[in-house]
Specification:
Structural class of chain C: alpha+beta
Chains: A mainly alpha (272), B mainly beta (429), C alpha+beta (170)
Radius of gyration of chain A: 62 Å
Distance between the termini of chain A: 128 Å
Order of helices and strands of chain C: HHHEHEHEHE
Helix content of chain C: 40-55%
Oligomer: heterotrimer
Number of helices of chain C: 6
Shape of chain A: rod-shaped
Number of strands of chain A: 3
Strand order of the largest sheet of chain A: 2-1-3
Radius of gyration of chain C: 15 Å
Distance between the termini of chain C: 36 Å
Strand content of chain C: 15-25%
Number of helices of chain A: 6
Structural class of chain A: mainly alpha
Shape of chain C: globular
Number of domains of chain A: 2
């Protein structure tokens, strides 16, 4: 509250007091525009309880006592002033209280509004939260369901894979066994085929030896021939290379999986 | 179970590791080669079918099998026309193509190329400008080039042979002809014509002269004849036998057989100094001397053990060492150019066949199956042996590969042919 | 073959040989340079003929001496022929003798040339043993180069393994 207001109040009270003093004290103080005031009026009321009748009778005495009165007025003025001051102070205090009350009220209202708002919000939030929770739960449930399904699927898959792996392993072992038997069967066939095409250079000294790495298609066609170890004799090397190249296609198992075992062969030419 | 698993895994590892196959045996066969008929640019027919001559040469060696031209999928005459696929398909390892072009009066350009079919690359390429009469010689030279490129050893096709032909002429008169021909028996030239027997032609190491035995004086005498001009000298006309001449590898001396001391013995004669040295001393027959390629030893036939066997003696003299022990009759040995083996006539149960004896290993391989084979001599590259045999009641010459696998009778138009001797290498022109 | 043998047989029949064989065993050994092995191998080869009766050699038709395979020994029958010729030549000093050795086609030519010479020398030595002067004899060889019978069987071969006895005026 600012200072200007306070001072205005003070003057207003002072004027009222003077009017009251002039007009007597017949007024029902209750008619004074302060009906709204609920409490803390006692001091003001007490101040107005100064007896007017006595003032009439004692005019003389007042006169006489003028000086005294004067001093008394003075005193009174001082008192009034003090009263005014007090009243102002009280007013100020009241105002302050009022204001505080108002503030409190407003605050309360505000608080209530806020509270309401908060409550609203909270409710909203809660609703939202609930909704969310619900969605989450739903989602969770769904996910769980899905996980469950997936797990089931995975399990099935694992099972299938295991089965497959087992079958593959069985197949592999079967193949290997077959390959071993095919190896036993086809190795001499391949050897015979190559031997049938190897024209041994008659001049070749014994002890000449060459190793060829031969890559084959699954059909037995010779893809590449590489001299892994040369005999040191160009004619001998050429004779063995030509032997393998002419021997194409080499006899391989019809089953391509088995033929795979023969995809790379090292031929060691070691004439005896 | 675990062990089985491990075993399988190990096995699988090994299986997936590279399969190894050992080849210890091959086949005894000729290397298949395609010799495409040569292209011809000129009028009429080419003077010679070069491809045919070359094919016959290579076949005769036993080292090659000239493929039938009917099987050829294409007939290129130069590199531009060669599709290697065509030749791989018929499993030819090598391919020879060429062409003959007439470039002037009796002037021909011959071009030829040799290819490795499976590698698809050229191995040789040559060009000659020659006369028509040199055509066969060029064909033999091409055969030599092919042989050398594909076997790593020099060929012996462009060489000659000397031999004796006996012809029956009118009124039962027999003529003895000393002849020289190409190694395939073509282009024969008579260098001596006599009414009396001729024997044992022997080439000088430079291939320019022939020593031989002639009975023109009604007994055996040794002559030396220069082929270029036909001039000749009587080298040995001692009392008794004069026979079996053999040139030392340096051409400065001859070993021969004389019986001037009462019995056939080996002597060494230096024609320039007329110096004569007796090498053997035995009352048995010692004959058929032949020099080792290093000139240090002489092998000869002697029946000092009771039957003819081969002995070896140092050229400086000394005690002869017996070389043959297998067979009832071993004679007329001569060395291969590498000195490792000798070829000889070896008889068991009355069958006279051509054999090769490996000296260090002391192993004898009989190469022929007839009953009267004789006069074997190695080709200068040691890969073939020329010898005399009988066919249809007359004497013919045949060649056998040193491994005995391939035999071919040389073509001779007439007469009874015998006593062949393979020349040393010819110088190239 | 049989034809030729048949021709020879009557000739052989007129030769009186019984004593000669034993008498000349010594010279036989000296002729055969390889000694004891002579004539033991190659059974059944050579001219077949029986010895019996007596008589004299018909020199004109008996100018060949035959041998076994790879041998230079003169057997008893052939010795009689040699003996007859020697006797004649001793009586006729104006004639020179050439002995020409031959071989059959089997075996190598140079060896056979030497073998032919060996046969000729064997006959020459025998001639000397019968009294003929060495300087009247020439021994030579044609080896297998001049066969009298063609063909590749024993019937031809046995006729080709021979020494020809050739007279020449001195």
């Amino acid at each position: 509250m600012n200072k200007g207001h306070g001072r205005a109040f003070l003057y207003a009270i002072l004027v009222h007091v003077l009017v009251l003093l002039v007009l007597g004290f017949s007024f029902d103080w209750r008619l004074t525009p302060s009906s709204n005031r609920q409490s803390d009026d006692k001091k003001v009321v007490q101040a107005t309880l100064v007896d007017g009748g006595k003032v009439q009778k004692e005019i003389e005495r007042i006169k006489k006592k003028e000086a005294a009165q004067k001093s008394a007025a003075k005193k009174e003025k001082a008192r009034l002033e003090s009263l005014i001051k007090q009243a102002a102070l009280a007013e100020k205090k009241a105002e302050k209280r009022r204001k505080a009350e108002e503030k409190r009220r407003i605050d309360l209202k505000k608080k209530k509004v806020l509270e309401k708002k908060r409550k609203n919000q909270k409710a909203k939030k809660l609703a939202k939260k609930r909704k969310k929770e619900l969605a989450r739960k739903k989602k969770q449930a769904l996910a769980k369901k899905k996980r469950k399904a997936q797990a089931k699927l995975a399990a099935q898959r694992r099972h299938r894979q295991a089965e497959k792996a087992m079958q593959a392993q069985i197949r592999k072992e079967q193949l290997q066994r077959q390959a071993q038997s095919e190896l036993n069967k086809y190795q001499p066939l391949i050897r015979q085929r190559v031997e049938g095409f190897w024209i041994r250079p008659p001049g070749a000294k014994t002890g000449l030896k060459a190793i060829l790495r031969v890559r084959l298609t699954r059909g037995g066609e010779v893809l590449t021939v590489r001299v892994v170890r040369s005999s040191g004799n160009a004619i001998f090397d050429r004779s063995v290379e030509n032997a393998v190249k002419k021997a194409t296609p080499l006899p391989l198992p019809d089953n391509p999986e088995l033929a795979e075992f023969f995809s790379v062969i090292d031929f060691e030419f070691d004439p005896q | 179970m675990i062990l089985l698993g491990v075993g399988l895994q190990l096995w699988a590892y090994q299986a997936m590791a590279i399969l190894k196959i050992e080849i210890t045996k091959g086949i005894e066969a000729g290397v298949p080669i395609a010799i495409v008929p040569f292209g011809w640019q000129g009028e009429g027919k080419p003077p010679q079918d070069l491809a045919k001559i070359i094919g016959a040469d290579l076949n005769r060696s036993g080292r090659f099998e000239s493929l039938d031209k009917e099987d050829f999928l294409s007939r290129p005459y130069d590199q531009a026309g060669v599709k290697f696929k065509d030749w791989r398909l018929i499993k030819a390892e090598a391919l020879a193509v060429g062409k003959v072009q007439r470039v002037g009066k009796d002037r021909y350009q011959v071009q030829f190329q040799l290819f490795d079919v499976f590698k698809g690359k050229q191995l040789a390429g040559y060009r000659y400008v020659i006369k028509a009469k040199q055509m066969r010689k060029v064909a033999h030279q091409i055969s030599d080039i092919i042989y050398e490129k594909l076997t790593g050893e020099p060929g012996a096709f462009d060489t000659r042979i000397a031999y004796v032909t006996v012809e029956q002429r009118g009124s039962g008169q027999r003529r003895f002809l000393l002849q020289v021909a190409d190694a395939d028996g073509y282009e024969p030239v008579t260098v001596l014509d006599s009414g009396e027997p001729i024997m044992s032609p022997a080439w000088s190491p430079d291939g320019k002269r022939l020593a031989y035995v002639s009975f023109e004086k009604r007994r055996s005498m040794v002559y030396v004849q220069t082929l270029a001009d036909g001039s000749r000298k009587r080298l040995a006309d001692f009392r008794g036998l004069n026979s079996a001449p053999a040139w030392s590898p340096d051409g400065k001396r001859l070993a021969l057989v004389l019986s001037r001391d009462g019995n056939p013995e080996i002597y060494i004669l230096s024609p320039r100094s007329r110096q004569l040295r007796r090498l053997t001393h035995h009352h048995a027959i010692d004959t058929e001397p032949a020099w080792s390629p290093n000139g240090r030893h002489i092998v000869f036939t002697s029946d000092r053990s009771g039957k003819p066997q081969i002995y070896r003696i140092s050229v400086g003299g000394g005690k002869p060492q017996r070389v043959t022990f297998e067979g009832e009759y071993n004679a007329r040995a001569s060395y291969a150019a590498d000195g490792q083996s000798i070829t000889l006539v070896s008889a068991t149960k009355g069958r006279y066949r051509i054999a090769v004896l490996h000296l260090r290993r002391n192993t004898m391989h009989v190469l022929t199956q007839a009953t009267l084979d004789e006069s074997p001599s190695f080709a200068p590259n040691g890969r073939m042996i020329l010898y005399a045999t009988e066919q249809g009641g007359r004497g013919v010459l045949a060649a056998v590969s040193a491994d005995g696998r391939v035999k071919q009778v040389l073509r001779f138009l007439k007469g009874d042919v015998r006593e062949p001797a393979w020349s040393p290498y010819n110088r190239k022109f | 073959m049989n034809k030729k043998i048949l021709l020879l047989v009557p000739l052989i029949l007129v030769i009186g040989l019984s004593g000669c064989g034993n008498k000349n065993k010594k010279s036989d050994a000296s002729v055969d340079e390889r000694g004891v092995s002579t004539g033991t191998a190659e059974n059944g080869e050579g001219v077949a003929g029986e010895q019996f009766g007596g008589g004299s050699v018909d020199r004109a038709s008996q100018r060949r001496v035959y041998f076994e395979f790879d041998r230079a020994a003169v057997d008893d029958q052939n010795r009689a022929i040699v003996s007859a010729h020697a006797a004649y030549l001793v009586d006729n000093p104006g004639i020179a003798l050439t002995l020409e050795g031959h071989a059959d086609e089997r075996g190598t030519r140079e060896y056979n040339l030497a073998l032919g010479e060996r046969r000729a020398r064997a006959v020459a030595k025998l001639m000397q043993a019968y009294g003929l002067a060495a300087d009247r004899i020439t021994a030579t060889s044609y080896g297998e180069e001049r066969p009298v019978a063609l063909g590749h069987s024993e019937s031809a071969w046995q006729l080709n393994r021979r020494v020809e006895i050739l007279y020449e005026d001195r």
